[in-house]
Structure prediction request, 305 residues.
Amino acid sequence: MAVNLRIPRRQRPRQDDEPTHDGVATPLVATPVTAGPVAERNGKTDTAPRPSPAPEAGTEPPVIRIRGVTKVYHLGETTVHALRGADLDVYRGELVAIMGPSGSGKSTLMNMIGCLDQPSSGTYELDGIETSTLSGDALADVRNRKIGFVFQSFNLLPRTPAVEQVELPLVYAGARDRRPRAVAALEAVGLGNRLGHRPAEMSGGQQQRVAIARALVTEPAIILADEPTGNLDTRSSEEIMELFQTLNQERGITILFVTHEPDIAEHTRRVVHIRDGRIYRDESVAKPVLATDVLATLPSEEDDE
Ligand SMILES: Nc1ncnc2c1ncn2[C@@H]1O[C@H](COP(=O)(O)OP(=O)(O)O)[C@@H](O)[C@H]1O
Ligand SMILES: [Mg+2]
Prediction:
Protein backbone atom coordinates (compact mmCIF):
# COMPACT_ATOMS: atom_id res chain seq x y z
CA MET A 1 0.00 0.00 0.00
CA ALA A 2 1.48 3.27 -1.13
CA VAL A 3 -0.29 5.53 1.31
CA ASN A 4 2.33 7.03 3.53
CA LEU A 5 1.02 7.28 7.03
CA ARG A 6 4.26 7.21 8.90
CA ILE A 7 4.26 9.19 12.08
CA PRO A 8 6.60 12.16 12.10
CA ARG A 9 9.84 10.97 13.68
CA ARG A 10 9.99 13.71 16.23
CA GLN A 11 6.81 12.51 17.91
CA ARG A 12 8.19 9.24 19.10
CA PRO A 13 11.33 7.22 19.36
CA ARG A 14 11.77 4.66 16.62
CA GLN A 15 11.59 1.04 17.66
CA ASP A 16 14.51 -1.06 16.49
CA ASP A 17 12.38 -3.84 15.09
CA GLU A 18 9.89 -1.57 13.38
CA PRO A 19 9.28 -2.43 9.73
CA THR A 20 9.74 0.55 7.47
CA HIS A 21 7.81 -0.42 4.37
CA ASP A 22 4.50 -2.07 5.07
CA GLY A 23 1.46 -1.93 7.28
CA VAL A 24 2.42 -5.10 9.11
CA ALA A 25 1.98 -5.05 12.81
CA THR A 26 4.17 -2.05 13.36
CA PRO A 27 5.25 -2.53 16.94
CA LEU A 28 4.61 1.03 17.85
CA VAL A 29 4.87 -0.09 21.40
CA ALA A 30 4.08 2.79 23.60
CA THR A 31 7.24 4.04 25.17
CA PRO A 32 6.98 4.81 28.85
CA VAL A 33 7.75 8.42 29.51
CA THR A 34 10.23 7.43 32.15
CA ALA A 35 11.99 4.12 31.95
CA GLY A 36 11.24 1.42 34.47
CA PRO A 37 8.07 0.40 36.24
CA VAL A 38 6.31 2.94 38.36
CA ALA A 39 7.10 1.05 41.55
CA GLU A 40 10.79 1.23 40.72
CA ARG A 41 10.62 4.92 39.89
CA ASN A 42 8.95 5.57 43.19
CA GLY A 43 11.67 3.70 44.97
CA LYS A 44 9.28 1.02 46.19
CA THR A 45 10.00 -2.65 45.88
CA ASP A 46 6.46 -3.83 45.30
CA THR A 47 6.06 -5.02 41.72
CA ALA A 48 2.29 -5.43 41.44
CA PRO A 49 1.08 -4.02 38.13
CA ARG A 50 -0.36 -0.58 38.62
CA PRO A 51 -2.09 1.75 36.23
CA SER A 52 0.52 4.10 34.85
CA PRO A 53 0.23 7.74 35.76
CA ALA A 54 -0.36 10.08 32.88
CA PRO A 55 2.77 11.88 31.81
CA GLU A 56 2.94 15.43 32.98
CA ALA A 57 1.02 17.76 30.74
CA GLY A 58 3.18 19.29 28.07
CA THR A 59 5.89 16.63 28.04
CA GLU A 60 4.50 14.82 25.02
CA PRO A 61 1.58 15.37 22.65
CA PRO A 62 -1.49 13.25 23.38
CA VAL A 63 -1.71 9.98 21.48
CA ILE A 64 -5.47 10.57 21.15
CA ARG A 65 -6.63 14.13 20.54
CA ILE A 66 -10.35 14.65 19.97
CA ARG A 67 -11.85 18.09 19.36
CA GLY A 68 -15.47 19.00 18.87
CA VAL A 69 -16.35 15.61 17.50
CA THR A 70 -19.94 14.98 16.48
CA LYS A 71 -21.52 11.87 15.06
CA VAL A 72 -24.91 12.00 13.42
CA TYR A 73 -26.80 8.93 12.29
CA HIS A 74 -29.71 9.24 9.89
CA LEU A 75 -32.36 6.62 10.33
CA GLY A 76 -35.02 7.30 7.71
CA GLU A 77 -36.79 10.42 8.90
CA THR A 78 -35.03 10.60 12.24
CA THR A 79 -31.62 11.96 13.04
CA VAL A 80 -29.65 10.60 16.00
CA HIS A 81 -26.94 12.77 17.52
CA ALA A 82 -24.70 10.10 19.03
CA LEU A 83 -21.85 12.53 19.77
CA ARG A 84 -22.47 16.24 20.27
CA GLY A 85 -19.07 17.84 20.47
CA ALA A 86 -16.75 15.56 22.41
CA ASP A 87 -13.28 16.71 23.46
CA LEU A 88 -10.71 14.32 24.89
CA ASP A 89 -6.95 14.01 25.22
CA VAL A 90 -5.36 10.70 26.16
CA TYR A 91 -1.63 10.40 26.72
CA ARG A 92 0.57 7.49 25.86
CA GLY A 93 0.63 4.90 28.61
CA GLU A 94 -2.65 5.88 30.24
CA LEU A 95 -5.25 3.39 31.43
CA VAL A 96 -8.65 5.07 31.13
CA ALA A 97 -12.16 3.94 32.00
CA ILE A 98 -15.14 5.40 30.13
CA MET A 99 -18.50 5.40 31.87
CA GLY A 100 -21.93 6.68 30.95
CA PRO A 101 -25.57 5.69 30.64
CA SER A 102 -26.77 3.42 27.88
CA GLY A 103 -27.09 5.34 24.62
CA SER A 104 -24.77 8.15 25.74
CA GLY A 105 -22.34 7.57 22.86
CA LYS A 106 -19.65 5.40 24.47
CA SER A 107 -19.52 2.81 21.69
CA THR A 108 -19.71 5.50 19.03
CA LEU A 109 -16.72 7.21 20.65
CA MET A 110 -14.77 3.95 20.96
CA ASN A 111 -15.47 3.04 17.33
CA MET A 112 -14.20 6.41 16.26
CA ILE A 113 -11.09 6.19 18.44
CA GLY A 114 -10.54 2.71 16.99
CA CYS A 115 -10.84 3.99 13.41
CA LEU A 116 -13.83 1.75 12.78
CA ASP A 117 -15.80 4.90 12.06
CA GLN A 118 -15.21 8.60 11.41
CA PRO A 119 -16.70 11.75 12.92
CA SER A 120 -19.44 13.72 11.16
CA SER A 121 -17.58 16.86 12.18
CA GLY A 122 -14.67 17.78 14.40
CA THR A 123 -11.17 16.38 14.41
CA TYR A 124 -9.53 13.25 15.72
CA GLU A 125 -5.77 12.92 15.71
CA LEU A 126 -4.36 9.49 16.49
CA ASP A 127 -0.63 9.55 17.14
CA GLY A 128 -0.32 12.71 15.08
CA ILE A 129 -2.43 11.46 12.16
CA GLU A 130 -5.62 13.39 11.45
CA THR A 131 -8.05 10.54 10.81
CA SER A 132 -11.28 12.39 10.08
CA THR A 133 -10.37 12.94 6.43
CA LEU A 134 -8.73 9.60 5.66
CA SER A 135 -10.13 7.27 3.00
CA GLY A 136 -11.51 3.93 4.09
CA ASP A 137 -8.34 2.05 3.10
CA ALA A 138 -6.06 4.50 4.84
CA LEU A 139 -8.24 4.39 7.96
CA ALA A 140 -8.10 0.59 7.97
CA ASP A 141 -4.35 0.75 7.62
CA VAL A 142 -4.01 3.03 10.65
CA ARG A 143 -6.38 0.80 12.60
CA ASN A 144 -4.44 -2.36 11.78
CA ARG A 145 -1.15 -0.82 12.77
CA LYS A 146 -2.13 0.91 15.96
CA ILE A 147 -5.29 -0.50 17.49
CA GLY A 148 -6.34 -3.72 19.17
CA PHE A 149 -10.09 -4.03 19.78
CA VAL A 150 -11.85 -6.10 22.44
CA PHE A 151 -15.64 -6.50 22.54
CA GLN A 152 -18.17 -7.39 25.21
CA SER A 153 -19.26 -10.50 23.32
CA PHE A 154 -15.67 -11.65 22.62
CA ASN A 155 -16.37 -11.96 18.86
CA LEU A 156 -14.50 -15.24 18.48
CA LEU A 157 -15.05 -17.70 15.67
CA PRO A 158 -17.08 -20.54 17.20
CA ARG A 159 -15.21 -23.54 15.85
CA THR A 160 -11.67 -22.24 15.64
CA PRO A 161 -8.96 -23.20 18.15
CA ALA A 162 -7.58 -20.36 20.28
CA VAL A 163 -4.18 -20.22 18.62
CA GLU A 164 -5.74 -19.85 15.17
CA GLN A 165 -8.06 -17.09 16.38
CA VAL A 166 -5.07 -15.18 17.64
CA GLU A 167 -3.13 -15.77 14.41
CA LEU A 168 -5.87 -14.24 12.29
CA PRO A 169 -4.82 -10.56 12.49
CA LEU A 170 -1.33 -11.67 11.50
CA VAL A 171 -2.74 -13.62 8.56
CA TYR A 172 -4.57 -10.49 7.36
CA ALA A 173 -1.39 -8.48 7.80
CA GLY A 174 0.69 -11.05 5.94
CA ALA A 175 3.05 -11.19 8.90
CA ARG A 176 5.73 -13.83 9.48
CA ASP A 177 6.23 -16.03 12.54
CA ARG A 178 2.51 -16.19 13.08
CA ARG A 179 2.41 -19.32 15.21
CA PRO A 180 5.12 -18.34 17.71
CA ARG A 181 3.67 -14.85 18.01
CA ALA A 182 0.16 -16.21 18.61
CA VAL A 183 1.51 -18.64 21.20
CA ALA A 184 3.40 -15.82 22.94
CA ALA A 185 0.25 -13.66 23.02
CA LEU A 186 -1.77 -16.51 24.53
CA GLU A 187 0.96 -17.12 27.08
CA ALA A 188 0.86 -13.41 27.96
CA VAL A 189 -2.83 -13.72 28.84
CA GLY A 190 -2.26 -16.91 30.85
CA LEU A 191 -3.64 -19.32 28.25
CA GLY A 192 -0.47 -21.07 27.14
CA ASN A 193 -2.18 -24.31 28.13
CA ARG A 194 -5.32 -23.67 26.05
CA LEU A 195 -3.85 -23.28 22.56
CA GLY A 196 -6.07 -25.89 20.94
CA HIS A 197 -9.26 -25.08 22.85
CA ARG A 198 -12.32 -23.86 20.98
CA PRO A 199 -14.61 -21.19 22.49
CA ALA A 200 -17.19 -23.75 23.64
CA GLU A 201 -14.47 -25.47 25.65
CA MET A 202 -13.56 -22.30 27.57
CA SER A 203 -15.17 -20.11 30.23
CA GLY A 204 -16.29 -16.58 29.38
CA GLY A 205 -13.23 -15.16 31.09
CA GLN A 206 -10.94 -17.42 29.11
CA GLN A 207 -12.70 -16.49 25.87
CA GLN A 208 -12.23 -12.82 26.65
CA ARG A 209 -8.55 -13.48 27.30
CA VAL A 210 -8.28 -15.14 23.88
CA ALA A 211 -9.86 -11.98 22.45
CA ILE A 212 -7.30 -9.87 24.30
CA ALA A 213 -4.48 -12.06 22.96
CA ARG A 214 -5.90 -11.51 19.48
CA ALA A 215 -5.88 -7.75 20.09
CA LEU A 216 -2.35 -7.93 21.47
CA VAL A 217 -0.69 -10.06 18.83
CA THR A 218 -0.09 -7.21 16.39
CA GLU A 219 1.61 -5.23 19.18
CA PRO A 220 -0.74 -2.25 19.02
CA ALA A 221 0.03 0.99 20.83
CA ILE A 222 -3.58 1.21 21.96
CA ILE A 223 -6.09 -1.36 23.17
CA LEU A 224 -9.76 -0.37 23.13
CA ALA A 225 -12.27 -2.51 24.96
CA ASP A 226 -16.02 -1.87 24.80
CA GLU A 227 -17.53 -3.30 28.00
CA PRO A 228 -15.00 -6.13 28.14
CA THR A 229 -16.31 -7.37 31.51
CA GLY A 230 -19.99 -6.85 30.68
CA ASN A 231 -20.63 -10.58 30.36
CA LEU A 232 -18.27 -11.79 33.06
CA ASP A 233 -18.51 -12.75 36.72
CA THR A 234 -16.54 -10.93 39.41
CA ARG A 235 -13.46 -13.13 39.38
CA SER A 236 -13.20 -13.17 35.59
CA SER A 237 -13.69 -9.40 35.51
CA GLU A 238 -10.87 -8.91 37.99
CA GLU A 239 -8.67 -11.20 35.92
CA ILE A 240 -9.31 -9.01 32.87
CA MET A 241 -8.48 -5.92 34.94
CA GLU A 242 -5.32 -7.58 36.23
CA LEU A 243 -4.33 -8.27 32.65
CA PHE A 244 -5.02 -4.68 31.59
CA GLN A 245 -3.04 -3.34 34.54
CA THR A 246 -0.14 -5.62 33.66
CA LEU A 247 -0.18 -4.78 29.94
CA ASN A 248 -0.44 -1.10 30.75
CA GLN A 249 2.29 -1.15 33.34
CA GLU A 250 4.75 -3.61 31.86
CA ARG A 251 4.33 -2.90 28.16
CA GLY A 252 3.23 0.72 28.34
CA ILE A 253 0.16 -0.01 26.21
CA THR A 254 -2.44 2.75 26.29
CA ILE A 255 -5.76 1.14 27.24
CA LEU A 256 -9.27 2.61 27.14
CA PHE A 257 -12.20 0.53 28.24
CA VAL A 258 -15.91 1.13 28.71
CA THR A 259 -17.63 -0.14 31.83
CA HIS A 260 -20.92 0.31 33.66
CA GLU A 261 -19.43 -0.72 36.97
CA PRO A 262 -17.80 1.93 39.19
CA ASP A 263 -15.78 -0.83 40.94
CA ILE A 264 -14.23 -1.80 37.64
CA ALA A 265 -13.63 1.80 36.57
CA GLU A 266 -11.61 2.38 39.74
CA HIS A 267 -8.88 0.07 38.50
CA THR A 268 -7.63 3.11 36.61
CA ARG A 269 -6.30 6.51 37.53
CA ARG A 270 -8.75 8.20 35.23
CA VAL A 271 -12.48 7.84 34.66
CA VAL A 272 -14.07 9.77 31.80
CA HIS A 273 -17.83 10.25 32.08
CA ILE A 274 -19.93 10.73 28.98
CA ARG A 275 -23.55 11.84 28.81
CA ASP A 276 -25.68 12.83 25.84
CA GLY A 277 -22.74 12.60 23.48
CA ARG A 278 -20.44 14.87 25.49
CA ILE A 279 -17.71 14.32 28.01
CA TYR A 280 -18.94 16.06 31.10
CA ARG A 281 -16.60 14.83 33.79
CA ASP A 282 -13.01 13.69 33.81
CA GLU A 283 -12.23 12.23 37.19
CA SER A 284 -8.89 11.15 38.58
CA VAL A 285 -8.75 8.22 40.95
CA ALA A 286 -6.33 8.88 43.79
CA LYS A 287 -5.77 5.27 44.72
CA PRO A 288 -6.66 2.86 41.93
CA VAL A 289 -7.79 -0.61 42.92
CA LEU A 290 -5.21 -3.30 42.21
CA ALA A 291 -6.84 -6.33 40.64
CA THR A 292 -4.14 -8.54 42.15
CA ASP A 293 -5.25 -7.44 45.63
CA VAL A 294 -8.92 -8.03 44.90
CA LEU A 295 -8.22 -11.47 43.43
CA ALA A 296 -6.37 -12.43 46.60
CA THR A 297 -9.57 -11.79 48.58
CA LEU A 298 -11.86 -13.80 46.29
CA PRO A 299 -12.48 -17.47 46.93
CA SER A 300 -10.32 -19.50 44.57
CA GLU A 301 -12.19 -21.13 41.79
CA GLU A 302 -12.25 -24.81 41.05
CA ASP A 303 -10.53 -24.79 37.69
CA ASP A 304 -10.46 -27.56 35.16
CA GLU A 305 -6.67 -27.42 34.91
N1 LIG B 1 -25.21 2.63 13.54
C1 LIG B 1 -26.12 3.38 14.14
N2 LIG B 1 -27.18 3.87 13.48
C2 LIG B 1 -28.10 4.65 14.08
N3 LIG B 1 -28.05 5.02 15.36
C3 LIG B 1 -27.02 4.58 16.08
C4 LIG B 1 -26.00 3.74 15.52
N4 LIG B 1 -25.09 3.46 16.49
C5 LIG B 1 -25.53 4.08 17.59
N5 LIG B 1 -26.67 4.76 17.36
C6 LIG B 1 -27.41 5.59 18.32
O1 LIG B 1 -26.50 6.53 18.85
C7 LIG B 1 -26.70 6.71 20.24
C8 LIG B 1 -25.42 6.36 20.99
O2 LIG B 1 -25.20 4.97 20.85
P1 LIG B 1 -23.95 4.20 21.47
O3 LIG B 1 -22.72 4.92 21.08
O4 LIG B 1 -24.05 2.78 21.05
O5 LIG B 1 -24.20 4.37 23.03
P2 LIG B 1 -23.63 3.56 24.27
O6 LIG B 1 -22.51 2.70 23.80
O7 LIG B 1 -23.20 4.61 25.24
O8 LIG B 1 -24.76 2.75 24.81
C9 LIG B 1 -27.88 5.84 20.61
O9 LIG B 1 -29.04 6.64 20.56
C10 LIG B 1 -27.90 4.80 19.52
O10 LIG B 1 -29.20 4.32 19.31
MG1 LIG C 1 -22.22 0.65 23.88
Remarks:
- The longest strand covers residues 78-90.
- Residues 1-45 have pLDDT under 50 and may be disordered.
